[in-house]
Amino acid sequence: MSKTVDYIIVGQGLAGTWIGFQLIKKGYSIMVVNHSSLSNSSWVAGGLYNPLLAKRQKLSYLAHEIYPHIESVYEEIETYINHSVLKAEPIQYIIESIEELNTWSVLCETEAYKPFVKMIDFVDIPSIDAPYGGVQIQHSGWVNIPELLQAFRVKLMAETAYLDEVFMQEDLLMNAEGVNYKGIKAKGIVYAQGTPTFHQDIIRLKPAKGEILRVNIPQLELPFIPQQGVFMLPLGDGNFKIGSTFEWKDLSDSTTEEGKEQLLKKWQNYYKGVFTITGQEAGVRPSSNDRRPILGALDQDNKSFVFNGLGSKGVALAPYFSLQLANFITEGTAVDKEVNLKRFKWM
Ligand SMILES: Cc1cc2nc3c(=O)[nH]c(=O)nc-3n(C[C@H](O)[C@H](O)[C@H](O)COP(=O)(O)OP(=O)(O)OC[C@H]3O[C@@H](n4cnc5c(N)ncnc54)[C@H](O)[C@@H]3O)c2cc1C
Fold first, then answer.
1. pLDDT score recorded for residue 123
2. Lower Cβ count inside 10 Å, N or C end of the chain?
3. What is the mean pLDDT of residues 236-255?
């Protein structure tokens, strides 16, 4: 193929989609090279965004900067793909003990937590056991990631900006003008590969496998997402996703009996009704050691860049940090020290 674009992007999970969108928004042309066979993290994910680490009663990273704006940033990409993917159905965290209830009552009154939590008497649903009530988490909800990725891909394909193949690093030529991948010339290249990154010698990832269950509960429709250890995401027609597990040793994307048992045990701590299991899926999150995303330039000449390390918070972190990376690539503005690729390099 002979084509000239501004940037080549390797990978089209959440990271590749968002950096692609930010560059397009700034008026740059892109070519995305992606093959889904290498990682299905974005396709398996629950897609929840949550400004709280509720179990630990802590705020998520950059909670105040990111979460109040999530709906409006997703609205922009929804307009571009002409498809609605964000569901502002709040997470309701089920309080587990009287001690936890006491701590939440205090936290709810603090300036830092006030915008995010509201104490509630848990809605009276007989199959959900919530004797201590719960907290409704404001600025939480979920994004249908497969629909987002698919709709963005359709847009790219319409512009002949999507190549469905495994990108091979040895096919990339670097020259004074930029890069050349099999006849596709560009100013630079962004690697958004998730766990199967080429740069394992540079990027210190600590991937975490996750599993989810799909269940059906006839006639149960919930306008919110119950959570306690695991979430119960309503997908409509009595279908739910139950997730997720965390596992750091087995990094395959095969489902396991242990994963299923772990999910069922945590879920049945609060869900007491009947259900049928309809599926089970697994994927590997591209997490970093200290749960920070990783972005920046790989070389001195600013021709190759990385966007990775989205971990378990891809939905919330991808829009915010893809904008930061796009500004860095196109205008040379600095990226935050905490997420700068330099910090993650093996010495
Ligand atoms: C079970 C589970 C539940 C989760 N739940 C949530 C949740 O509720 N909320 C949330 O925010 N996050 C969640 N996550 C995390 C979220 O999925 C990740 O943060 C996010 O998907 C990472 O996106 P990514 O684009 O970096 O990586 P990926 O999704 O892995 O995408 C990388 C893409 O690049 C492709 N690729 C790689 N190398 C090449 C190559 N050489 N050539 C061509 N293509 C290549 C891969 O095949 C893939 O398509 C969950 C993850 C799992 C596994």
1. 64
2. C
3. 97
Which residues line the pocket of ligand 1, CB cutoff 6 A? 10-16, 33-36, 38-39, 41-42, 44-49, 166-167, 192-196, 210-212, 243-244, 283, 285-286, 308, 310-316
Tell me the percentage of the chain whose pLDDT exceeds 70: 99
The SS3 of residue 206 is coil
CATH, domain 3-45+145-204+290-344, list 1.10.10.10, 3.50.50.60, 3.40.190.10, 3.40.50.620: 3.50.50.60
User: What count of residues does the chain have?
Assistant: 347
Tell me yes or no: is domain 208-285 CATH 3.30.9.10: yes
User: Which residue's alpha carbon is at the smallest distance from atom 31 of ligand 1?
Assistant: 13
Three-class secondary structure assignment of 161-174: CEEECCCCHHHEEE
Residue among 18, 310, 317, 339 to mutate when testing ligand 1 (max atoms within 8 A of CB): 310
Residue nearest to atom 52 of ligand 1 (CA): 45
Domain boundaries, the chain: 3-45+145-204+290-344, 48-143, 208-285
The residue among 283, 318, 292, 281 whose CA lies nearest residue 206 is 292
Mean pLDDT, to the nearest integer, of 168-196?
96
Mean pLDDT of the chain: 95
- Tell me, what amino acid is at 93? Y
Token pair for residue 288?
A: 């970093």
How many A from CA of 36 to the centre of ligand 1? 10
Closest residue (by CA) to atom 7 of ligand 1?
47
pTM score above 0.90 = yes
Question: Which amino acid type is present at position 320?
Answer: Y
Residue with the smallest CA separation from ligand 1 atom 17 is: 42
